[in-house]
Structures are given as structure tokens and as C-alpha cells.
């Protein structure tokens, strides 16, 4: 099997999402760091791979792919039968996985990533955190997590009794909320969300991603 | 085949997205109107189907599903071999379809739906359009559409030479931009985006959706 190339950055949540999938699927890959501080993601060479100038991008043989959620779905489908199965076994199971993947993309991600950006990345670039924006998005996220709490009181994982892409998509931003932003209470104050988080964040694949990205370039 | 039930509303873009898929797949379905003006989407009976209190929701046999983009993926997969094929034939084609579906969900939808909400729904409810928000989102959408223009200069549809879910996802909001919001220039000033729009909006399935939803309750 040819090695997969991942263009990304160790502080990027979408990069970590794809890394987590590569590790779950036990795939060989190499990482090419895109130097965001030098604006490398906006240079013609990178824009030829990813016209939006965003990270990450993957190359696997003849395929170049952007959009992290499309990448992990591709990897889970293409390498079915290797490593962790992440899609669901039947069309019905897959529909429920897709449903919770969309909840992450449409309802969880926007408030979570805004909180992460405002509390980590804005100060890192010398700016001042917009506390009002953080507060508005904390309130939005609480409402989403109340629905997760109800859901996770009935099933171990978001899509059922099996770990799937739907859970995996939540790892990087939730890790930042708990371990970097000081917003762990959002997760840890909800009994079933806490148990789910402790379960999914203790997976060996995610621990490897943490180790790989913590020692990488900032 | 049991009839599929769609809970939705004729003015809702996600409802129209799912209707378009049901029509492309030539499926039997019945529509249950959720009376948004009476807040029916927040009543316990509906929240039991869709805990987010959003429309639409579908029921197909034992499956109840929310998130419009997950619904159309389910319908395209479950009813493969019937009506229009919308997923791509190979894993590689499917990856490119998924990529452009994610572009719609992550980059196109937010500015497009904000423009639609501010110019149609806010005044409809007696409010005043936030012109500054419209302008900011028009500028965001222009950048996205410049990338579409480049893409569509190389392939007839977003994911290749075949109509797919990636194109279908754009129908309701683009129709509003062109035909209701007075923002048609965003689409019609870009040669390849215009040709794509004229092609996809002339599909019989979409014309049927327009007809069904125009005469429905407001």
C-alpha cells in the first residue's frame, strides 16, 4: 500500500481529526507540516491541492482530497476491514452515524471552535479574547450538550453501542475545551457526556495523536 | 415499499433539499407540515422525533432521522438503483462527492443562509434586515463562488461530470438567492456557475419541488 500524505499542522483540530482516523485504521502515513505562520496555506503550490487554502489536505495515490470530514469518511470506506470499523454495518446504522456526524458539523463545531479560537489562537497571535463571543458560544454549546447528555443516557456512543466517525469527529475540539480552554466543566458536569468523553479520549489511537501533535512544531 | 414521511415546511431550505432528493429517487412520500408559526417544532411530540427541534425529520419504516444532509445520503444509499444515482460509482467518486457536500455544509451554507434569513425571514416576522450582516456574508459568498467558478470551468458538476448530492444540496438556497433575495448577480455574473445553476435548476425533480412548495402553506 502506498503511503498516505497528510498536509496539516499540529495545532489544527481538523488535522487531528484526520490523524485520529489514520491511527484508528492503522494506516501508514507521512505528515507534511504546512507553515501557517509563514502563510504557506495561501501559496500557489498549496492552493493547487486545496483551493480554499485551508488545512488539512490528504493525498492517497491519485486522489487529492480536502474537507476533513470527507477525508475520514473516505478513509473509513476505502480501508474497510482494516483497523477499527467506523461507519456502521448496515445502511440504517450508517444513517445514524451520518446523522451525528452532521450534528457535529452543523451544531457542535461552530460554538466549540469559536471558543477554542477565542481562548487559544487569538491570544497566541497577540490579540485579545472576545469574552462576549465566548459567553454566547458557551451558552449555545450547553444547549447542544444537554441533548448529547440525553442521547448518551440511552446509548454508549452517539450513533449506538459502537465507536464511530460521529464520536471521532468530536475528539480534537473537546480535548481543547477540557485541557486547554478551561471549559472542562461543560463536559465533566454532565454525567453521560463525561463517561463518553473519558471513554473516547482514552482510545490508544487518540493518545498517539496527542503524543505526535504535542511534540510537533507550533 | 412503505411510504416515507417527511416532517417539514414549504419555506424551509433543508425541507426542500430532502424533497429534491425524494423526487430524484422517485420515491413515494407524504409531507406532514410542522406549523412553525405555532412553535410546533418545540412541542414534546416533535422533540421526541428530533431533539434539536429543527425541521425536517423523516421516518422510513423503523428509522427516524434528523439532519437533512444525513437524510439525503441515506435515501441515495438505501434506494440505490432507483431514480437518479446521486453518490458516485466508485469509492474515489464518492469521496469527491462527499468533499463538495462538506464544502456546501461548511463554506457555502453559512453565508448563503444568513443572506436568505436576513432578506426574507427577518422582514417576514416584522423585523428589520441587518444590512451590514448581509454585506459581510455577500463578500464571504463571493470568495466561495470564485472557487466554484474555477472548479466548474473544469467539470460540469461539482464532483465531476455527473449530477450528485453535492449539486443537489445547493438548490434551495441558490434558488432563494436568485429568485427571492435579489442576489442573483452572485450566481449569474460567473459564467460557469451560471451555466451550472441553469442546468441543475431545470431538472424535473427540482421543478416539481418548486411547484409543490409554492402552493403550500406559508
Automatic annotation (TrEMBL), chains A, B:
The keyword Transferase applies. Coiled coil: none annotated. One of its GO terms (cellular component) is cytoplasm. It catalyses: RX + glutathione = an S-substituted glutathione + a halide anion + H(+). Residues 2-83 form the GST N-terminal domain. It comes from the Eukaryota. It is an enzyme of class 2 (transferase). The keyword Transferase applies. Belongs to the GST superfamily. Phi family. This is glutathione transferase. It comes from Cathaya argyrophylla.
